[in-house]
């Protein structure tokens, strides 16, 4: 990309970010929270480093990746940026657990105790504990991974999972992540976000030592509804960074 093209991209991202933060502020007010409590995670999969750097220059510091092989060259490219943050939001194969544990700040997609154990094993001692979220299949969809959480009967089965992860000293269990079924009307997602918040509250009340303060929920289509229902992290892709390659 030449300098003119990069400047145009930066200008567009500035506009997008301002619009998104306005929505975040409005939705936070609806839920009685401060907008500063909400973090926008820029989903940068299939985006070139020039676009990520343009977003960084606009003040966007947190980026989410879905594929380890694609993400690692990016984390290396930006290694000198001390304040940039990399979160893994995609499914992680067991053989990629070491690379994730060594190169990311957080994992939103912990979908098994086996994966949690591997991340704990491979997290370097010189780094802070890895922030992790339990991925919950809140809509009982066969196409999605995650712990079952669509029915109240499933919730009790998560209690031993939470207790076991809390014993892993290289992990910091901070919350839950979910993606509801895709609807044309964002309002249809609201009951799923409500259920996720209630599940978080249930786990926190049953496991007193758990500090599940975070809910990673909401994407470009429905993040305003997600924030109104308690989301603390929203995952925004093309609506912020523009069309993917």
Point out poorly predicted stretches. Answer: none
Q: Looking at the structure, what is the overall shape?
A: globular
* Largest beta-sheet details: 9 strands, parallel
Q: Helix segment count?
A: 10
Structural class: alpha/beta
CATH architecture: Alpha-Beta Barrel
- The third-level CATH topology is TIM Barrel
Can you walk me through this structure?
The protein is an alpha/beta fold and 245 residues long. It has a single domain (3-241), classed as Alanine racemase (TIM Barrel), CATH 3.20.20. 42% of the residues lie in helices and 17% in strands. Strands 1, 2, 3, 4, 5, 6, 7, 8 and 9 form a 9-stranded parallel sheet that branches. The radius of gyration is 18 Å and the shape is globular.
Tag the structure with descriptive keywords.
245 residues
Give the SSE map.
Elements (H helix, E strand, L loop, with lengths): L2 H28 L8 E5 L5 H9 L4 E4 L2 H10 L7 E4 L8 H7 L2 E5 L2 H10 L7 E8 L9 E2 L3 H4 L3 H8 L4 E7 L12 H17 L7 E3 L6 H6 L4 E4 L1 H4 L4
Parallel strand pairs: 1-2, 1-9, 2-3, 3-4, 4-5, 5-6, 5-7, 7-8
Helix pairs in contact: 1-2, 4-5
Question: What's the quick description here?
Answer:
With 245 residues, the chain is of the alpha/beta class. It is built from ten helices and nine strands.
